[in-house]
Amino acid sequence: RKRMYEYELRKYANDIFESENFKSTKAYIQHGNMSVREHSINVAKASLYIRDKLKIRCNTRDLVRGALLHDYFLYDWHKSDALNPHRLHGFFHPSRSLQNAQKEYNLTARQRDIIIKHMWPLTVIPPMCREAWIVTSADKFCSLMETLYIHRGRIHNGKKKKYAIANVSSHKIA
After folding, report:
1. CA–CA distances in Å: residue 60 to residues 8, 40, 50, 104, 143
2. pLDDT category, 72, cuts 50, 70, 90?
3. Which residues of the chain form beta strands (DSSP E)?
């Protein structure tokens, strides 16, 4: 299953992995000691796992691309400055992520829905497609695991850790 997820990520989002902006997210912490890049990959893999486990029919390309770009805000939200205090990051980063993603990619309506609604219920308006519901759920799960250090990132400790659900992540993607 792990290899299949790696294949699907590369098949549908190789251009995202090659993007300098996506590569730069390796430097930003998301939760605990997990980078935004690692978190986004975890969410994409967890989304594929949820799709498979619950046998949900959906557009896999949109699911993968939306999951990888859901936190495409391109800044370290833990470090504020005079220009960007990053207060209420949870409320505002979906729109920043969408703006950044739209500058680089031709997004489908589903991909836009995934990115802008992944913080529901903070976003108030709920997701409108299956793919967005899947990514929203996967994001909540991954965020919890990362925040509680049940799933640790490679920042600071340099070690790979295995993912809590079905061992779907070992960050093989370069």
Report:
1. 8, 16, 12, 20, 22
2. confident
3. 29-31, 34-35
Beta bridge partners of 34: 31
Q: What is the DSSP letter of 58?
A: -
What's the pTM value of the predicted model, to 2 decimals? 0.80
- For tokens 């899947």, name the residue: 134
In three-state secondary structure terms, 61 is helix
Per-residue exposure over 102-124, b if at least 16 CB sit within 10 Å of its own CB, e if not? eeebebbebbbbbbbbbbbeebe
- Range picked from 22-36, 43-57, 70-84 for highest mean pLDDT: 43-57
Cα-Cα-Cα-Cα torsion 90, 164, 61, 27, nearest 10 degrees, comes to 50
- Kindly state the tokens that stand for 98: 């969408």
Query: Quick one: average pLDDT of 80-99?
Result: 65
Give the C-alpha distances (Å, rounded to integers) separating 101 from 22, 51, 79, 94: 10, 23, 22, 10
Identify the CA nearest to 130 among candidates 62, 39, 43: 62
Decide: helix, strand or coil at residue 30.
strand
